[in-house]
Structures are given as structure tokens and as C-alpha cells.
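Q: Give me a backbone?
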Amino acid sequence: MSSKKMSSSRKEKKQYTGWSAVIRDPRVIIVLVLVALSLAAIFVPIGDRDGFTNLQFGLDLEGGSWIQLEFQSEVVTVGQGADINAVAESMATTLDCTVVAIDQTKVEVQKLATESELRDAVEAAGATYVGYEPGVGTDTANTVKLILESKLNSLGTNDVKINTLTNLNGVSQYVRVEMAGVDMQTAQELVGTQGLFELRIVTTGNETAHVLYSDSVVSVQTPSQNPAGSNNWGVGFNLDNAGATALQEACIDYGATTDPADHELVMYLDGNLVYSAPLSSALAASIAKNPENSLYAGTGSGDDGKQKAQELEIHLRAGALPVGVEIAGSGSTSAVLGDYFKVICVIAGIAALAAVALLVYFRYRTPEIVLPMIGTNVAEIIILLGIAVFIQQLDIAAIAALIAVLGTGIDQLVIITDEVIHEGRVPSQALYLKRLKRALIIIMTSAATVIIAMLPLIIMDLSTLKGFAIISILGVLIGVVITRPAYGKVVMEILGK
């Protein structure tokens, strides 16, 4: 009996070595599972796809066009201490345009004006003129981006990338629109096309009657709380005199002034319902007597109400941007040239991998080192591509980042190998773990440096450079968190023999 217990105890304490220990290690299992999931994400058909994989390619590789638009607007800086909202209101009257307060010292003038005109307007408002620069503030830039995305997506355009090019001080002077698979003429038509916005009124049952189109909407305000400070959100907009009169007549004719609940106002964009609500009792009573040029559409309370207000603002604009823009640059890549670039990128990746493998072999002269290194590197690239399926288009800059990740990955694996191997042998486990820890600290420091260096490219949203930065950061994180620890286990178990 005692002998059986001892035998059972030995089985329970059995220690695996070599490849048996490697494939049972949790870190290695995680890598293998992620590789399998990434391959599925890349190759298993998801929805409608045109190519062999689910990878999203930018216009460099897919063919397409890009247009860079310059905002016809200026950001003016005034001296400290002025009531910025009062300054904006006064400048709007003087310059006869929309002026928006950005922060305590900056206002956005939504038209082009000379410096002398801006200086005079600031001084007429009782403030001190400091300077100006072309562009718009963050809110307007984001609104332009949302409007363009909404418009281009509603027109069925695939693979659209829109980036606002923003300075470190938060002022955006350009917006860049990239459309894969779209020729230049079509791209310019799409960007310049305005959606069809229509306001209708419910007559009887589900029947509606036309009231006005978007050409009667002369201005749209940004989402606001009504009353101020409350949690109720909505969007204010103004109609021209003809539109206000048409709305009054429709409300009176169909009974919306006496029975608002059964005669709601409904809004459509390109035939799709985007808003529906009855007149408030106060507005119904007012519009029965006089046309109303200024209207306010409430969208609800809380974050949901705020999001709906932002969407409604876009719909009311019907694709019209809050500031004027001019084409500052454009370009295109043909589909044939895009396919050629794809082939070149694949060849470059294979050549880089082969060159790396050759150099590693010349350094260590041992297949047991070369194969795990290359396998770890390939696994890292596959995982990175699997993530890119969902978050990032692959253009030439992103491919360059993949090749850079391949090179820096080998660098880090060499650091681990050189740290833990002494005189061609793997030391005792205690010493091995100490050296591995030291190697990982070196790698983490290097990774942190890369991430810090790449962050400005993401924050500044510099078009294709943003893709390079995202792929570089993801590659570094995948290596440090997932593949490097797994490689450390392979070194200990395989080379220990």
C-alpha cells in the first residue's frame, strides 16, 4: 500500500521537459490561441468581402483617391481677462459671420478676414488683439469629420478615412479624405454633394405632407442644453422667411397648432427618418399668430440625448459643413498600381524575414535558436495582422511599420538570448530567471521609449503617419506582453538540453 502511494505521488509530481514543457506552458498556449484566432480573423469570410482576406487596405494598396480640404476660417487670440462670449458676440456683428468662443482667450471666426479686420473687430469688442492663425477649433473640426463620415457612408462609399490635421495647440487647418477604390472625379463629386434634407408634417394617420427642404435652413447651432445648465439636450436652427412662412401655413392647415400630438413634425435625410416630435404647446400657440424663424428640436436628456443632438445637427446640415472649405491638394492611385504595391510589400516582408533569419543564424549557428526566434517573430506579425483587421487599414506606412516591428522584435529576442545564455549554455533555473528578468526590463524600457515617441503621431492625427504609429505601438505591446515571455520559456526548455 505504501509503495502504491509513493508511485502515485511520483506521477503527480512528474515534471515535463523540452518541447513537452513548452507546449504545456500557459504563455505559449496563449500565443498559439491568439495565432489561431488571428488566422481566423484574417481568412475566415466575414460579411461581404472583395479579396482573399479580411484585411482592410488603404488607397495606397487598393487604389483610390485622396482630397485635402483647407478650412476657410480663422482662430483669433485675445488678451486675458476679457469676457470671451461677449467678444465673440460683438465680433459676429462686426464681421457679419458666425464667431464661436473656443476657450478663455480664443474665438473661431467662420470666414476669411484680413488681419486689420480681425484687429478692428477685437478692439471694437473691448478686448486686446494678440494674433490669429488659419483653421478651426476642436469642436468644429470634429463636427466636420462627423458630417463627412455620415455623408460618405450614407452614399455607400467603402473604406473611407477622414483625418483632421491638428496642430499642437488644438487648431486644425486641414481635413484629409481618403477613399479607397474611388477615382478622383467621383471623389470630388462625393465630397461636394449635399444630402437632401426635408421637413414634413403628419396629416392623418401615417400620411405626411411636404413643408420645406434644406435650402430653407440658414443656420444650425451646436447641441445645447435647454434650459441652460439642465440635462436636457437639443439643437437650435434658423429658417429663412420663406421657410418660416411655409412652416406656419402647414401647421395651421393641418391642425398642428391646435392638436400638436397628432400632427408631428418629421425630418428626413435622403428619404430616411431622422427625427420626429410634436410642437411644444408654447411654440404651437406662437406659430399660430406669427411665423417662427428660430426653432429648437429637443432630443432628450443625459448622454443619450446629447448623442442624438449631435446626430441631429449633422442631419440638419444635410452634408453642409459649418465652415467653408477649399481643395488644397488631391491625388490618386490606380487599382493596377495598388495591386503592384501589394506584391512589392509581400516581397519586401518575405525578404526582410529571410534576411533576419540569415543574420541570426550567422550569429548563433544553431537551428534550435534560429527557429524559435523566427517562429516567435512570425507569430507576432500574425497576431498584429489579426488585430489590424478590426481597427486599422493597411497602407504603405502601416506595412513599413510591420517590417520595422519584425526587425525590432528580433533585436529584443537577441537581447533575451544573449542575456540568459552564458558560454553557450543555459544556466541554472534561478540564475536563468534572474537574467531573463533583467532582459525583460531592458526590453520594457525600450518599448516605453518607442510608445512615447509614437504617441505624438497619433495625437496630432497626421494622416498615414497615424497608421504607422498605431501598428508600431501594437507590435511593441504584443511583443512585451505576449510573445517575449513565451520565447523565454522556449529558450529555457529547448536550449537547456
